[in-house]
Design goal:
single chain; 147 residues; alpha+beta; Arc Repressor Mutant, subunit A; three-stranded antiparallel β-sheet; 6 helices; 3 strands; 67% helix; globular
Amino acid sequence: MADRPSSDHVAAWRALLTAQAELTERIDAALRAADVIPLRWYDALLSLYEAPGRRRRLAEMAKATLLSRSGLTRLVDRLEQAGLLTREPVEDDARGAYAVLTPDGLQALRRCWRIYGAEIEARVGRRLTVSEARTLRALLARLVEAA
């Protein structure tokens, strides 16, 4: 049997999960109260905004948003119905498709960011110094790299 993690490592893991769950829930609640798009929608649209041509293959989008392909398909269906993205076929792949950010999708991102950015500032920026935020980012990057 593999070595057991130290109690400090287990506590750090639980603190990481708790912080992520609590902060995500509180930020999502603030977005709902402001009547803007949900956080999951924002993340999906942001992945398109950051992509070349503001479009991305659905398989790449699933990876960028940490969703399963079926989960992403359902999300893309809802975003498309809301007019925030469109799908375009991939020329050399009959089964492939791109998701493309629409002007309405860009506007939804901008409206959401006003609330989301303020929430990040209130919940992270006012509690961590810039140096602490950089350290946390570096530590989390090490965990992601190891995964």
